[in-house]
Amino acid sequence: MSLHSLFGRHVVDVPYSHWEGGHFVSRCTLCGREMVKLPGMPWGLSGRK
Known about the structure:
This protein is mainly beta.
């Protein structure tokens, strides 16, 4: 596991963002992990693999 994954701040890849299944989906520009956002809520890492 990288230090970014433990302590880093994930940065949303806005051009990649899209609507999927009732929430916004994107990825982190630094590590590529999937990020999700419900309308009105902050971005967070997805639990999906």
